[in-house]
Amino acid sequence: MSTVAVSAPEAPVQPALKDLVGLDRDQLAEELKALGLPKFRAGQIWHWIYHKGVTDFAEMTTLAKPLRAELAAHYKIGRPEITREQWSTDGTAKWLLKFDDGNEAEAVFIPDDDRGTLCISSQVGCTLTCSFCHTGTQRLVRNLTAGEMVAQILVALDRLNGFPTAQEDRRLTNIVLMGMGEPLYNFDNVKRAMMIAMDGEGLGLSKRRITLSTSGIVPEMERCGEEIGVNLAVSLHACNDELRNKLVPINKKYPIKELIEACKSYPGVNNARRITFEYVMLKGVNDSLEDARALVKLIEDIPAKINLIPFNPWPGVEYECSDDETIEAFAQVVLKAGYASPVRTPRGRDILAACGQLKSASERLRKKDRIAAIAAASAG
Ligand code: SAH
Ligand code: SF4
């Protein structure tokens, strides 16, 4: 029996629809002005997108039907494709998201008793090369757009039944920019995305509940406090330049002294609003009692929290996580210096959702893509 290949009729070419997600209020108003719409319409549409979470203009019942159709002819309210969704036994969820150009990034939701934190990515990969971080070994790097960052929040809310956003017991209450990438190397997009996240008539996440983690891009830190106003977490990991140069090589450009100065003058820092210092526990590298004492000494003048992160290993890495007793002894020094609950409990380990592990899935996919490309080339 033979089969006959039947080609499908060619689909009419549709003009690409512009995504409204990621435009700030002014940009949205400007965009809609071009369609002749007054500013209050932009406010209504904003409410539908970010408060109600609709993705279809047809559901915007406060707008006349012809207007809904006109909007649908020009725009979309985008969501990236969820390439993979995983739920850990501890309630942590991880989404691998594919954007329009095929690039991917991950977002992780971590529920706790008193909060639900979404960890979002700011870049695909990272240009920095911290020696213990899996993301830093990823070759492919680009900044995520504001829309792509906001979309991570929207996807999480879709999946957690988080719309409409004004719910008494919201599951998603906090955002941390601690996924893939260095957020201060993508300042403008991060700023715009956070402005959208903080808008009280939309996603409504307060700046007190958003934390940006940086490896220490000193010249951008002040701007971060002034222009975005979110909490700051600093990936310290070592208390002398020799070691920090190895672990966090950007330290060669912005050494510890400058970093600490920038922390001291971070806008809005006071005892109610502290800087979080992150410190990854690496066996035999930075985990001695002497290191612990150096750490509390280094930051003694700064209103601060300390987060000791058990190192999450990945294939091929040269480091190991400090053992439990060492972490405990280190934590005791930190506790005695007045810092409460310093050790971060690893979450979602069964789905590789922990800090510094956000890379493997995209890497595997790229390998698959490579194989597909080789197959296509040899077939052609
Ligand atoms: N680029 C930013 C934010 C993303 S990383 C930064 O470096 O701060 C978020 C946190 O995870 C950082 O403190 C980072 O140093 C830490 N981290 C990276 N790889 C890790 C690993 N394998 N185990 C534990 N923490 C890691
Ligand atoms: Fe980049 Fe942060 Fe990883 Fe360093 S720790 S490589 S800055 S993502």
What structural class is derived from the secondary structure elements? alpha/beta
Taken in chain order, the helices and strands follow as EHHHEEEEEEEHEHEHEHHEHEHH
* Helix content percent band: 25-40%
Which strand-content bin applies to the residues?
15-25%
The CATH class name of the largest domain reads: Alpha Beta
Number of E-type strands: 13
Q: Mean pLDDT, nearest integer?
A: 89
Overall shape: it is elongated
Q: Strands of the biggest beta sheet: in what spatial order? A: 3-4-5-6-9-10-11-12-13
Number of domains: 2
Hetero ligands: S-adenosyl-L-homocysteine, iron/sulfur cluster
Which key phrases capture this entry?
alpha/beta; DNA polymerase, domain 1; 2 domains; elongated; disordered N terminus; disordered C terminus; binds S-adenosyl-L-homocysteine
